[in-house]
Amino acid sequence: MTRQGFEEEFLKKYITREKRNTWYKQLKEIQQGNKNINIYNSKFKKLKQKLNPDNELPEEFYLQKYINRLNEKITRKVIEEDIKTLNEAIERTKQIKKERNYKKPKTEITKIEI
User: Fold this and answer.
1) Residue pair 92/67 in contact by the 8 Å Cβ criterion
2) How many helices (H) and strands (E) does the chain have?
3) 43 Cβ contact list (under 8 Å, min separation 6)
């Protein structure tokens, strides 16, 4: 059995209703805000895996949750494209982050003699 398979079976068997409710609440409230996109992506994917290990809920449900909780500037760029899956949206946000980092002006360091 793979590690992922073990984790899925473990979650199915030992996770309480109370814990699942806590995860649903976290999913409902998760926002990127000023967080790094990689941190947001990681937290979102972990919650999705915990709540939906068998992919019983539609992809569209998670896609909309993910996009609607992104930073507003990133949301606008993501919805301009015809993205169909959560993985596509995550990859696009990574590209946007790289583009933004690339476009940032380089600051010059000035030596000050004392």
Assistant:
1) no
2) 6, 0
3) 30
Q: What is the mean pLDDT of residues 69-74?
A: 92
Tens-digit pLDDT profile for residues 42-59: 999 999 988 887 778 888
Closest CA to 40 of 20, 19, 69, 63: 69
Tell me, what amino acid is at 11? L
Q: What angle do CA 64, 57, 42 make, to 5 degrees?
A: 60
Nearest residue to 39 via CA among 69, 72, 15, 10: 69
Residue 95 half-sphere exposure toward CB, CA atoms < 13 A: 10
Q: pTM score, two decimals?
A: 0.73
Q: What is the sign, positive or negative, of the torsion defined by CA atoms of 8, 12, 17, 19?
A: negative
